[in-house]
Amino acid sequence: MKHFLAILLLPIILISCTEDTSTIGVVPDSDDIENSYDVFNIYTHSVMLDSVVYNNSYNYLGCIKDPETNTDITAKFAAQFHTFENYKFPQRNSLFYDLQNNHSQDPVECDSIDMQIYFNGYYGDPNNPMKLEVYPLSFNNIIEEDSTYYVNTDLEQFVDADAKPIATKVFTAVDYSISKIVREDEKYTSHMRIALPKEFGNKLLNAYYEHPEYYKNSYSFIRNLCPGFYFKIKSGTGTMINVSVSTLNLYFTYYESNKPDSIETVEAICRFAATPEVIQSTQFTNGNLQELANDNNCTYLKSPAGIGTEINLPINQIYANHQSDSISRALVTLTRYNSIVNNDYTLNIPQNVLMVRKDEVVSFFKKHKIPDDQTSFCTGYDATYNSYTFENLGRLITYCRYEKQNGMRSSGMSEAQWEAAHPNWNKVVIIPVSTKKTTDSYGNTSYASVSHEMSMCSSKLVGGPNNPIKMQVLFSRFK
Predict the structure, then answer these.
(1) What digits encode the pLDDT tens for the residues 333-353?
(2) Rounded distance, CA 38 to CA 342, Å?
(3) Are 466 and 296 in contact (CB under 8 A)?
(4) How far apart are CA 196 and CA 219, in angstroms?
(5) pLDDT single digits (tens) 378-418
(6) Within a 13 Å sphere around the CA of 197, how many CA atoms are in the beta-carbon half?
(7) Which of 135, 195, 315, 418 could form a cystine bridge with 230, CB 3.0-4.6 A?
(8) Phi then psi for 359, rounded to 5 degrees?
(9) Which residues contact 410 (CB under 8 A, 6 or more apart)?
(10) Omega before residue 304 within 30° of 0, cis
(11) pLDDT per position as a tens digit, 227-277
């Protein structure tokens, strides 16, 4: 069997050597160099991804069940609202309400106020009714712009304990109160309207005339008038919407001069938007996720808040009989199980994954790093072979070995002592990611950014503690 395996694997590895390997140190064939290969077992297991840095370009709201894994996924989100700097309302005495009542010292009133939640897609049943509750965020615990938030951040900490919903809304992903012709128009964006109490709009309007400095900028507006809102599903399951933008709309009427008998009234809107200039954050809750992570016969990739696959690289075994050899190439393939569930709502397959050292997972995303092909790598999903392949891990293995040897020399520790003090020295984690690439004037493509995948994706992979996968390694040595 060992010889049969050699016949199968050797052509693959030798063919790989004909590719451009300048970045991974492949030694060219010559009369003075001989190549050999070996295959090693790799053990993998699923790990919970707790510190997923949130990307506020994505917001979700809803509750669904993954039909493949039978896990519940719930998304709630909080949003602050942006105001233009030094925003100005019309003069107080030109407001329609003030002129009609002729009480220049009395509080003025708006016509109405609402929120519009726009979404560019949904997952699940478009006809499923969902009940939404909206809570005002607290002035006592403001969501700070310079803080880092994660997908498992408890957003309810930013709501006063005794707070009541300021509004409720029952919605479906498709609004059938809007005609089909309008919904199918390319200019139409799916949205829902949430009416807010008129008293809240009156508060915002009167505050301008009493404290115009509150509208100086978003920072002042958030801390003095409106810290934002928290959106949560009260009941219903089966639908998740992908929120693109939220707006807070204050409607009022005014005259363009102080002569109401000679000029038509003007109906106006003051619009505040939840944009990247202010904080938006989604909290994901996954049910039964730990049960999936504990499965010893496979591993998982789940996003946006879910599971990654940890790999223990067999570095000591690789060098056991190759102390003086160079690693020309090291290849690992993660094969995906096809879903056995026939369901229209099966989650998508992660299209890009990152391999990064376990101790660098959090810092990689917080520092907005990109793969360096030494301690971090990206690869895409291969639909033909239903797998993810990392082909150039030789530099990573060499790096980890050098790190250990150098650490032992500088610390005076034995190998066993150093490994005990650095338990993650040979561990990497595979994480679903979203990537952006750029191309220079010579046609060379490189990564511009890599961030946690925020769409709902899932893959079940061959592996697990009871089911090792293989790493193919090509060695080179001088004769």
Answers:
(1) 999 999 887 777 888 999 999
(2) 40
(3) yes
(4) 23
(5) 999 999 999 999 998 999 999 999 999 999 999 999 999 99
(6) 10
(7) 135
(8) -75, -10
(9) none
(10) yes
(11) 999 999 999 989 999 998 899 999 999 887 655 555 677 889 999 998 665
Cα torsion 407, 411, 415, 421: sign: negative
| Contact predicate 317/323, CB 8 Å | no
Could you give the CA distance from residue 361 to residue 49 in angstroms, rounded to a whole number?
10
What is the token pair recorded at 384? 């033909």
pLDDT of residue 258: 55
Model confidence, pTM? 0.81
Token pair 């690789």 in the structure block, residue: 318
Select the highest-mean-pLDDT range: 103-107, 226-230, 321-325: 226-230
